[in-house]
């Protein structure tokens, strides 16, 4: 099984799940800085030209959340719960995350951090103000939900935690006001105790180039 990744937020999720579940994976590093994600060989694996992607025999997958489901399902882990209603709840939070929470956290991370890394100019104050308004709206929803809970869905860790937490390790560089959301902070501190979450990147990998 090959997992194509770059050291960026979306591949963080399946890399952490693969490490957490100790799945024997052949990692392939895609160098975004060198534009390897736009090379024809990689576009034949993920036509979107984005990381992550996964190949397992005849199966070829893209989208970080789908890859997490695949990894957890294939290894029989309850990170992807057995119960259909729990699965629906996991999907609810992962879709919510893509559409709202990590979407606006990611906009802030891009403006406040990543633009500087890739030399894309100064942060745009109007974009930051707009993204911050939405981030606060949806962080409020998550903070309320996490009252009295240790996990996003049910009583144990699921891929919903790995998905919704994507920008939490990056909160300082993204300028996310986590101090205003004590339940999210508590949950994030707990996620940070997982070595697979804090150190998701493989020591051994092949390269595309
Ligand atoms: N919805 C996709 C998003 C993938 C994505 O945006 N990946 C970023 C890295 S975090 C990427 O490859 N960016 C390169 C580009 O867009 O040129 C997923 O969840 O897998």
Ligands bound here?
Answer: glutathione
Number of DSSP strands? 5
The N- and C-terminal alpha carbons lie at a distance of 19 Å
Q: Into how many domains do the coordinates divide?
A: 2
**Parts with pLDDT < 50 across at least 5 consecutive residues:** none
Which fold name corresponds to the CATH topology of the largest domain? Glutathione S-transferase Yfyf (Class Pi), Chain A, domain 2
Broad shape: globular
At CATH level 2, the architecture of the largest domain is Up-down Bundle
Biggest sheet statistics: 5 strands, mixed
Helical proportion?
Answer: 40-55%
Classified by CATH, the class of the largest domain is Mainly Alpha
Structural class: alpha/beta
Mean pLDDT: 97
Task: Compute the CA-based radius of gyration.
Answer: 17 Å
Helix and strand element order: EHEHEEHHHHHHHE
DSSP strand content: 5-15%
> Taking strands numbered 1, 2, ... along the chain, how are they ordered across the largest sheet?
4-3-1-2-5
Q: How many DSSP helices?
A: 9
Structure write-up:
With 209 residues, the chain is an alpha/beta fold. It has 2 domains: 84 residues, Glutaredoxin (3-Layer(aba) Sandwich); 112 residues, Glutathione S-transferase Yfyf (Class Pi), Chain A, domain 2, CATH 1.20.1050. Helix content is 51%, strand content 9%. The protein is built from 9 helices and 5 strands, in the order βαβαββαααααααβ. It is globular, with a radius of gyration of 17 Å. The two termini are 19 Å apart. The relative contact order is 0.17. The model has no long low-confidence stretch (mean pLDDT 97). Glutathione (GSH) binds next to helix 1.
């Amino acid at each position: 099984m090959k997992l194509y990744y770059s050291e960026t937020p979306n591949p963080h999720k399946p890399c952490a799940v693969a490490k957490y579940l100790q799945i024997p994976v052949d990692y392939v590093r895609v160098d975004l800085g060198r534009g390897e994600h736009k090379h024809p060989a990689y576009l034949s694996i993920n036509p979107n030209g984005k990381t992550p992607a996964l190949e397992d025999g005849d199966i070829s997958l893209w989208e970080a959340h789908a890859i997490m489901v695949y990894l957890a399902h294939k290894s029989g882990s309850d990170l992807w719960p057995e119960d259909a209603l729990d699965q629906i709840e996991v999907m609810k939070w992962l879709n919510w995350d893509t559409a709202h929470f990590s979407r606006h956290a990611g906009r802030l991370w891009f403006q406040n951090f990543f633009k500087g890394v890739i030399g894309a100019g100064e942060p745009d104050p109007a974009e930051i103000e707009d993204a911050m308004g939405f981030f606060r709206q949806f962080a409020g929803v998550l903070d309320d939900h996490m009252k009295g809970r240790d996990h996003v869905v049910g009583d144990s860790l699921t891929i919903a935690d790995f998905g919704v937490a994507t920008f939490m390790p990056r909160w300082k560089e993204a300028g996310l006001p986590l101090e205003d959301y004590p339940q999210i902070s508590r949950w994030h501190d707990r996620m940070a105790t997982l070595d697979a979450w804090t150190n998701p990147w493989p020591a051994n990998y092949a390269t595309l180039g």
